[in-house]
Amino acid sequence: MAQSTAAPAPSTKVAVAPLPLKVIVPWAVFFGVLMLVLLYFVGAEQGATAVLSGEEVHEWVHDARHLLGFPCH
Description:
By secondary structure, the protein is mainly alpha-helical. Helix content is 48%, strand content 0%. The protein has helices at residues 21-43, 56-60, 62-68.
């Protein structure tokens, strides 16, 4: 019962270049504003502060309000 042993493959390391800050900042600002808008619609879009009239937004985000702990009734 002969065993064959293969030589280990040579290790190749790939260097990952860091992203410059001027590339990351616009995306961070974009997603930050997007998250704030989403938080507004889930947490505060009803009543006196409503941007949109009617109850459609409230009904769409109703379960998310309860999940995140926002009162709505």
